Amino acid sequence: MGETIKIAGADGFEFSAYHEPSFTPRKGGVIVIQEIFGLDEYVRADVERWAKMGYEAIAPAMYDRREPGFLAKHDPDGIKAGVAHAMGTPIDQAMGDIAACSRFLKTRGDKVCVVGYCYGGSLAWLAAAKVEGLAAASSYYGSMVQANAAARLLCPTIVHLGRSDPGIPADEVAKAVGEHNSKVAVYIYEAAGHGFNNASPERYNAEAADLARYRTLDLFDKS
Fold it and tell me: How many domains are there within the chain?
């Protein structure tokens, strides 16, 4: 059963995180980085999925310093509020909170991986370059990947993109990543758009979500 816990960031601020121990013998830890909408039902469901696959999972509330307990709907107002919080959250602060989650999980076992979606997809890519000690990273449709394609990655990393994502040019991202990080696999899901892992009816693509999760699990298991 998942629970909300508190973790101290590098600045001493205690942020909330949704935590679930592994359901099966523990293979490692996974940090699940939210979309712009906060720790909503879809993020919590993803934490549970990772726990069922043998990973102790934790999802930090990335906006707690700005608005504790923030949750937004997938509507224009929710998107506006979520984007404002994402843009107002310093990258170094976000990296510090991810590192704090990694330290928490490492007290319970060595291997820690990170997966992120949308806003979290960007942070997962950046964490692969900025957070020491991660075993692997999986970035889903992060809008900042292209601009940071030349980052020197510290761990095995993969990227997932939807072909029909209106905000992220999949081929251009793949080209940029390939030029600077040729060992990174960039998977483009032809029938999927932005947010295809999120089970909300307007975005979910089950086939793409299942395949991307299989690829991510395979990376994490082998790292």
Answer: 1
**12: pLDDT strictly greater than 80:** yes
Strands 14-20 and 55-60: antiparallel
What is the dihedral sign for C-alpha 189, 54, 71, 159?
A: negative
Q: What CA–CA distance (Å, rounded) separates 206 from 159?
A: 18
In tens, the pLDDT along 61-96 reads: 999 999 999 999 989 999 999 999 999 999 999 999
Q: What is the pTM of this model?
A: 0.97
Structural domain of 72? 3-222
Q: Note the Cα 140 to chain centre separation in Å.
A: 7
**Which of 212, 218, 215, 219 shows the shortest CA–CA distance to 162?**
212
CATH number at residue 131: 3.40.50.1820
The DSSP element (H or E) to which 170 belongs, if any, is: helix 170-180
